[in-house]
Design brief:
By secondary structure, the protein is an alpha/beta fold. The chain contains five helices and six strands, in the order βαβαβαβαββα. 34% of the residues lie in helices and 18% in strands. Helix 1 packs across helix 2 and helix 1 packs across helix 5. The chain starts with a strand and ends with a helix.
């Protein structure tokens, strides 16, 4: 299985007086634009993802919907998982994913540092080996959906994705 791990885009700052509660924080206009650019670049690199799973927080769901649009995945089929929430145990998400019917590829959307912990768990690393940027994407090949069974194929920062989109 190919597991694409995507951190949500730029959201409203916690210090902004208009900022809602953490679960309701949403992407800014710039966050939407930058996430859309990354999604288009990723869509040009990969064939498809058969399963989309997102943290239920607004900013993660918005990011998932932007990627779904770029990859022509039905937004109504995006699943939610509490195992992608901040502070969730990363191996719990892998266990949940292993119970899904066999899929060739899945894309998940969540938060830092939990996604860095998920990458480390999938690779069998004792500590984080990444520091995902907002709207950053990692691709892990899992021989089986289990902690320690993965191999990092690539990691794309938003800056690199935007340069790819511009052909630079």
């Amino acid at each position: 299985m190919l597991l694409y791990i995507v951190r949500h885009g730029i959201a409203i700052d916690r210090e902004d007086p208009k900022c809602p509660s953490d679960p309701e924080r949403y992407l800014t206009a710039d966050g939407i634009k930058r996430t859309r650019d990354v999604a288009k670049s990723v869509a040009a690199l990969i064939d498809e993802a058969k399963l989309f799973v997102s943290s239920p927080y607004v900013r993660a769901m918005q990011t998932a919907e932007i990627f779904a649009e770029a990859l022509e995945f039905p937004k109504a089929k995006i699943e939610k998982s509490d195992f992608l929430l901040p502070g969730a145990e990363p191996t719990a998400f892998l266990r949940e994913l292993s119970h899904k019917k066999a899929v060739e590829s899945a894309m998940c959307f969540g938060h830092a540092p939990q996604l860095d912990e998920l990458i480390a768990a999938a690779l069998g690393a004792k500590q984080d080996v990444t520091e995902m940027k907002k709207a950053g994407v990692a691709c892990i090949e899992l021989q089986r959906v289990h902690a320690g069974a993965g191999k990092l194929l690539w990691l794309i920062t938003p800056r690199v994705a935007r340069k790819l989109a511009k052909g630079k």
